[in-house]
Design goal:
The chain has 243 residues and is of the alpha/beta class. The chain has one domain (34-242): LmbE-like (Rossmann fold). Helix content is 48%, strand content 17%. It is built from nine helices and seven strands, in the order H-H-E-H-E-H-E-H-E-H-E-E-H-H-E-H. It has a seven-stranded mixed sheet with strand order 3-2-1-4-5-7-6, sandwiched between helices. Helix 5 (110-123) crosses helix 6. The model is unreliable at 17-22 (pLDDT under 50). The structure holds zinc ion. Zinc ion binds next to helix 6.
Length: 243
């Protein structure tokens, strides 16, 4: 069958248009995503997600650590804790924000839900990581509640994940499904955790590293961090970027 010139042009135009539209997979791999990692205290995002954060920032994604409070607790001053967090974020190439609450005295009420939601909205993240809801520390449970509520109020626009920290002491009955290989960034994670020098890192890093080794055994790598994605998230974006 003879093809007219008009048909040829339109065929070429369609082919070019199809080529110009990136596939969803290509889009996920190349778009710079905004990620917020929420923690009840300075150090929680680093211990729970430090290897994943280092992988994300190495790829050029923008990661912000959102601490519920400044982490000061006698005899450690706020100035000392702020400086430790500054160093940790520098190591991870992450930004940092504070939600303005007090260590050990987290408040979850209408006013604080609103204030927290506004902080998250300012960043307008694609992905948020936060504490698992069953946790022995009140501040961690508060952090989960505030983040989950912001996700619901914002119509589940970002992919929401939970992470684990100090299992047994803090996180309880955790059941992850998204595993991220952190073998290549474990040393960076370790340095960021040790930047919180006032928080007995010898004890807590050893504990968290046992968890990372176990998650590695489960997923076939040397070290891994494991996350729980909330149903209703737009997609498993974290796995899309890092797997
Ligand atoms: Zn904590």
């Amino acid at each position: 069958m003879a093809i007219t010139r008009r048909q040829m042009v339109s065929g070429a135009a369609i082919a070019a248009a199809v080529a110009a539209v990136p596939s969803r997979a290509q889009d996920t791999a190349t778009k710079k995503q905004k990620i917020v990692v929420c923690g009840g205290h300075p150090g929680d995002p680093e211990y729970g997600c430090g290897g994943t954060i280092a992988r994300l920032t190495a790829l050029g994604h923008e990661v912000t650590l959102l601490y519920l409070n400044e982490g000061d607790w006698p005899p450690t001053s706020a100035a000392e804790r702020l400086e430790e967090a500054r160093k940790a974020c520098e190591i991870l190439k992450a930004k940092r924000l504070y939600a303005g609450q007090k260590n050990g005295h987290a408040i979850v009420d209408e006013e604080h839900y609103e204030a927290y939601r506004k902080v998250l909205e300012q960043v307008n993240p694609d992905i948020v990581l936060t504490h698992w809801p069953i946790d022995n520390h009140r501040d961690h449970r508060a952090c989960w509640n505030l983040t989950y509520d912001a996700w619901l109020q914002g119509k589940k626009k970002f992919a929401l994940y939970a992470y684990e920290v100090s299992d047994g002491e803090d996180t309880q009955q955790y059941s992850p499904a998204t595993y991220i290989d952190i073998s290549s960034t474990e040393a960076v994670k370790r340095a960021a955790c040790y930047a919180h020098a006032s928080q007995t890192p010898d004890r807590y890093y050893a504990m968290q590293d046992q968890v990372a080794a176990f998650r590695g055994i489960e997923s076939g790598s040397q070290r891994a961090e494991a996350f729980f994605m909330l149903r209703g998230s737009p997609s498993d974006l974290l796995a899309g970027i890092l797997r």
